[in-house]
Amino acid sequence: MAYSSTLHFIACLFVVLYPLVISIASVWAQTPFYQGKVITVIQGREPGGTGDQRARAVTAFLQKYIPGNPTIIHEFMGGGGGLRAANHMYSGARPDGLTIGSVSSGMLSSSVLGNPGVKYQTDKFHYLGAADGGGHYVFYTRRELGASNLERLRATPGIRIGAQSVGHSNYNLGRLAAFLLPLKDARFVTGYASPEIDAAILRGEVDSRFNQSHSVLRNNPEWVEKGMMDFHVVIEIPKGEKNPRFAKLPELETFARNERERQLIALQRGFRLIGSPFILPPDTPLDRVKILQQAMTKVFQDPQFPAEFKKMVGDDAEIVLPEVMDKTIKELPRSPEIVDLLKKIAGPEALPPRS
Amino acid sequence: MEVSLFQAAVQGFINLLQFKVFLALLVGVSIGTFTAVAPQGIGMPLVYAMLLPVVIRWEPITAIALLIGASSVSAICAAYLPVLFGIPGGGGSQATVLDGYPMGRRGEARRALGASFMAGGMGCLIGTFTLALAIPLAKPLIYLMGSPELFVVMLWGLSMVAVLAGRHPIKGLIAACLGLLIGTIGQQSQSGIMRYIFDQVYLLDGPPLSIIALALFGVPSALDLALTRLGIEQQPAPLQGSLWDGIKDTLREWALVVRCSFVGVWIGIVPGLGSQVVDWLAYGHAAQSCKGAHETFGKGDVRGVIAPESANDAKDGGDLITTLLLGFPQGVVTALFIVALLAWGFLPGPEMIKKNPEVIYSIVWIQGIAGILGTLVGIVLAKELARLAQVRYSLMVPIIFMFLLIGAFSVTRDPVDLLVLVIFGTLGYVMKRFGYPRPAMILGLVLGELMERYLYRSMMAYGFSWLLRPGVIILLILATVSFIYTLRGRLAQWAAAKVPAESASG
What we know:
The structure holds two protein chains of two kinds. Chain A is α/β, with parallel strands linked by helices.
């Protein structure tokens, strides 16, 4: 009897507790990995700049789309134009899905062009996309130069093209334009911040520059409306990205004579397209990579994101989804001949002869 | 409908007459004060980056009061660290350490702080006044200065080594050359050429200037305290001076304040210069032009505090001229301020003058009021903070080293920062011990990079024809006259010092 009642008691206990244990285990198993965790975003820049604002604009949304809503904090690792942070993400950061890098746009070009100090392989990172990729660039000259059309532009010798520094994307685009249009004995004047170049154009210190179309339209709309500058050529990144105000201008690729030159432009387009990417270290568990890529995609598809981004950064968001970024990097033309040619064009020496 | 500038100025002031605006201004003042006394890494760029996501959702004038209040007061109160601890303040207040710290050690910390806040407040008001006047005149001022003219100005600045070298011109020259040499480390941004980087990513940007300044002045100060085993105001000299003495000094030196404020405004206006040179150029100007400066500067002359502080605070007005009237940001802080203006729907530049002049004038008013508030806050807090100078050396030395280490490490958050601090700290101590002027080295370091940039741009844009530009010729003549004048004074001084020595020995 006693045995029977004990058995009965155990059976009852089992019936009562089994669902409870199962449900607790199930809840335990379904607890998102990121719940209660802290994600550190390592920014490859100093705090406070526009790059910092861009990263913060994205992570402000990212938290709500990662299951478990982890806390996201920012750390800064400036130096070497972002190289230090990229190197750290490659070999120093723990690949546990809790460290995200927000590195500079030069991380891809530095690696492909073999710049000194690069200690990472771009193919090994996992990419989460960017909010500042691509863009639409326009090349313009000051009205006083008298280069009102392409023929006159080509006939004007010694045009001075302003840019930030050797290797900067605006410098590379200016050099590409001088190479492909071609321009006679173009000179490149570097060492300016972006707004300084416009001031230098206005006082006649330089004659021309490449600049983002929306920056021109936002900061100096009268240059377009009142014809204070002559606009000549655009480059669309990605290809097909139009700006209606400059729709009539030719695309730089239309001046390419052969496949080699088209690949040259494609390589430069790829460098700029990835913007300032969010990356994960190599060997990060793939399930966590997937969670973060999906969350980032949801951020970029959030209807409120573009307006909030513009508020915080002052520019329109130029979204690059994780899979697009991954594909762009994988499909980048990397034949030694093209890379070598771009190295010469992006360098400080005279432009190479066009074959 | 366009309004007259007078109506806009009145409307700009009326916009401020709200409780929430003054509350925001007070919060900004508190944030600015904290930033001024915090270690170097917590600078205004970080504060703006953290505030921006919040304030862009606010009503613009309230948010502007917070932002401008914080940045103005941060600049005005930047003298605490240099005067009390011998640690260079943030950008724009580094030169203050040269005379501020000796004053502190002589028992005159309160006087130095009083002079600094008064000079800062007056500089801020002069900068603001210039901003208000410049609204119709800004454009020609900016386009007047091209790269060639800026190169000559930098050259002129470098000639101040003769002033900063004190009684040791050869040692000054060696220190300046060392600064120029260290300034070449890293990737040359114009050509992309790597110089002395030894395959180290850290050296791509060169050793950070802020750590070098911190190390050159801060480490020797801390070591001195440790070795003499005295608190700053526990020197054998009795406590002298008060805040009021410093304020009176500043009022007496009003002409110096005005001159240095215009140096600051001008540096703020010109794109590409900035806070790293403003204090040194103003200090050099004061050392060149003040009576008897060659004997007293660097040894605790209150004019050596007044000059850099007034210029540094006036620079904010100049910064805003370029930012608001032309839409060109003058640095990270003004770039973020432009982002905020854009978020509120204002387009900085000529469009803003046409469409929203009352907002520009609100900013002018806020800047002026923040300057006055900052001065008052500085004076009130200085009474309390100056007591730190009486703390025993055994407590002070660890505090100073903590500030130095945090300040250095927070610059790039790389452990190598600490190594740089140690290397340049040792160098600073050796230079101090053997009479090599450290300001000359800093001047070489700061101006070297700028000179190279402007010379490169001038050559690329104009070839050698830049030498024939009228602006260049006028500035070269002025620089040469100023240099000869200074050199003559120096030679006369050395000759005068030599004669009594000879007669004494003979």
